[in-house]
Write a structure and sequence with these properties.
Length: 148
């Protein structure tokens, strides 16, 4: 459904959202999200260029979200690293099809539109709205430091 890069970007963003403004280094994010550090560095650079995260240098530096988790959608994150594939015209470049998609490509484009809609309607904050007692598939949301 989404690329590995998009999943990594989402994992990193959800982790930062859960840390509520506490700067986290690339190494800390990589360890918590199980993303290879070298790959994560490239993802974070893309997110920084898109102004979704802020990078702070120095002793207490690291990455934080550029805006509140409730103001950032999944679609914004995914578009930065791997925009969803849509079919505005025949992907086979058949001249007489033009913008009139065949039934297969129409269905694929309709499905992509529904995914875009769902991603655009979902914020990072919503992804954190799970009961702490329930064990998620990923390690999110994180418990506060020192808590078990």
């Amino acid at each position: 459904m989404i690329s590995q890069t998009a999943e990594y970007a989402l994992r990193a963003m959800v982790y930062l959202a859960d840390r509520q403004g506490m700067p986290r280094t690339n190494a800390q994010i990589a360890e918590a999200t199980e993303i290879p550090p070298g790959y994560l560095a490239k993802v974070m650079q893309s997110l920084s260029r898109a102004n979704l995260v802020i990078s702070q240098r120095g002793l207490n530096g690291g990455f934080t979200l550029a805006k509140e988790a409730g103001q950032t959608t999944i679609l914004e994150v995914v578009r930065v690293v791997d925009p969803p594939l849509r079919y505005p015209e025949c992907p086979l470049k058949i001249a007489h099809h033009g913008k009139n998609l065949c039934p297969l490509h129409r269905r694929l484009d309709d499905a992509a539109a529904m995914v875009e809609q769902a991603f655009g309607d979902t914020t990072l904050a919503e992804l954190l709205e799970v009961p702490r007692q329930r064990k998620p598939l990923c390690r999110f949301p994180c418990l506060p430091d020192g808590a078990t």
